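Usage example:
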Amino acid sequence: MAFDVKPLPYDFDALEPSIDEETMKLHHGKHYAGYTSKFNDAIEGTEWADKSAEEIMAHLDALPSDIKTAVRNNGGGYVNHSLFWEIMSPNGGGAPSGKLAEAIDAKWGSFDSFKSEFQAKATGQFGSGWGWLVVDGGELALVSTPNQDTPLSDGKTPILGLDVWEHAYYKKYGPGRADYASAWWDVVNWDEVARRYDAARNG
Ligand code: MN
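Running the assembly step on the lines above writes:
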């Protein structure tokens, strides 16, 4: 079973002005497609070929050594971006509601305080990587990962992620990683994040 390049659930220009059309076209059509293709090349013909991407990334240590690095980088790129596209929406922004909102308030005191800490964690990642809101043992937590490493490989379930690779923002924001992160909140799809929160706690 080969992994597919999942189409964006909106148009390439739909996230403007937070994320510009050309960045989305290159990010999805080149970077994400490249990770997907190389991920498929790495696992093709192995016993892992019929596993889900999430299961593969959760068991990196069990992979044959000759494909482990390729899967770590490209399988990570596949699952990370597959999540990233879905947790954004042109109708996003605002604040979460329901159980997710309650859990965020309980952990960080307020939504604004959560946003501030998430953004600091994400933009503080040195070099390329990601900032994440994860479910870890049923609890919310903030982590960052370098390169295309995924929290799945540490037994954590990501429910919200911010790509802080330069390819995600440099065309519009230049070195302004914090400006990109600030504008990104306007396109966060909290309904999808809440769906993933419920699934992680009940799964
Ligand atoms: Mn990316």
